[in-house]
């Protein structure tokens, strides 16, 4: 269902629940048959509440993560949190596959599945993919396969994944809440008044790839003993 479809399905009162710092926060129930709610036959037996924040200014990915973790997660206290990029399409059972794995192995603090590239034959405008573009796409496809089948599979044996990709990863909230999350968000512009005054270039460079920092902090969290796994059956 597209954004304009579910927006039109809601009443005027439901279209905007509240506004914080210029961000509109929307609340609706997916699969409910009540008037003014979004209807979807796939979820008619199990309605799912959805909370969506629309950012009108691009403050960066880490700032979006701060909204998610410091805002929604600290308020709701979930057992697991899922991070997925816009445009990523997980298989119907991929997320549940990871969650069931983490429910069984309670020492797993973070897990990821396999990310697959889609090899396109035509572009969005209908034009054919040329030879150079085709080679680049296939090179990326092979690189992703090698990084998952070899790198992440071997790393998972030792309980440490060097990178849990922000495109498709699941974390145990109890594990990342606290020091790991604080380190994860250090690169956020509004986390500190002047980030240049407390970080030199060498230190700030570590926080450009915040997903790598999170993996290290999960392993190093004081008073805990969490590991990370790669779940090959969960594809996105």
Description:
GO terms for molecular function: chitin synthase activity. It is an enzyme of class 2 (transferase). Its EC number is 2.4.1.16. This protein is α+β, with helices and mostly antiparallel strands. It has two domains: 1-57, no CATH class; 78-235, Spore Coat Polysaccharide Biosynthesis Protein SpsA, Chain A (Alpha-Beta Complex), CATH 3.90.550. 39% of the residues lie in helices and 19% in strands. It has nine helices and seven strands; from the N terminus they run ααβββαβαβαβααααβ. Strands 4-6-5-7 form a four-stranded mixed beta sheet. Strand 1 (18-20) and strand 2 form a beta hairpin. It starts with a helix and ends with a strand. Mean pLDDT is 77; it is low at 9-15 and 35-41.
Please, what is the oligomeric state? single chain
**CATH class wording of the largest domain:** Alpha Beta
Which ranges are low-confidence, i.e. pLDDT below 50, for 5 or more consecutive residues? 9-15, 35-41
Biggest pleated sheet: 4 strands, mixed
Label the CATH architecture of the largest domain: Alpha-Beta Complex
Strand order of the largest sheet: 4-6-5-7
How far is the first residue's CA from the last residue's CA?
19 Å
Overall, the morphology is globular
Query: With helices defined by DSSP (H or I, 4 residues minimum), what is the helix count?
Result: 9
Q: What is the H-and-E element order?
A: HHEEEHEHEHEHHHHE
| Beta strand % | 15-25%
CATH topology value of the largest domain = Spore Coat Polysaccharide Biosynthesis Protein SpsA, Chain A
> What's the gyration radius in Å?
20 Å
- Helical/strand content category: alpha+beta
GO molecular function: chitin synthase activity
Organism: Euplotes harpa
EC number: 2.4.1.16
Main location: membrane
């Amino acid at each position: 269902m597209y954004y304009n479809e579910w927006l039109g399905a809601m009443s005027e009162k439901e279209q905007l629940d509240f506004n914080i710092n210029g961000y509109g926060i929307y609340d609706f129930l997916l699969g409910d048959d009540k008037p003014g709610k979004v209807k979807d036959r796939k979820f008619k037996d199990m309605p799912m509440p959805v909370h969506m924040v629309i950012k009108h200014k691009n403050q960066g990915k880490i700032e979006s993560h701060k909204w998610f973790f410091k805002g929604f997660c600290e308020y709701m206290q979930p057992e697991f949190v899922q991070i997925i990029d816009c445009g990523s399409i997980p298989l119907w059972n991929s997320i549940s596959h990871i969650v069931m794995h983490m429910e069984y192995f309670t020492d797993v603090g973070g897990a990821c599945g396999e990310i697959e590239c889609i090899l396109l034959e035509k572009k969005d405008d209908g034009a054919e993919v040329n030879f150079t573009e085709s080679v680049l796409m296939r090179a990326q496809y092979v690189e992703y396969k090698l990084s998952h089948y070899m790198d992440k599979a071997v790393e998972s044996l030792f309980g440490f994944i060097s990178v849990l990709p922000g495109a498709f990863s699941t974390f145990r909230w109890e594990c990342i809440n606290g020091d790991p999350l604080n380190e994860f968000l250090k690169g956020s512009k509004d986390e500190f008044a002047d980030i240049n005054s407390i970080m030199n270039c060498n230190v700030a460079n570590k926080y450009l790839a915040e997903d790598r920092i999170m993996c290290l902090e999960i392993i190093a969290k004081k008073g805990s003993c969490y590991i990370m796994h790669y779940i090959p059956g969960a594809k996105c």
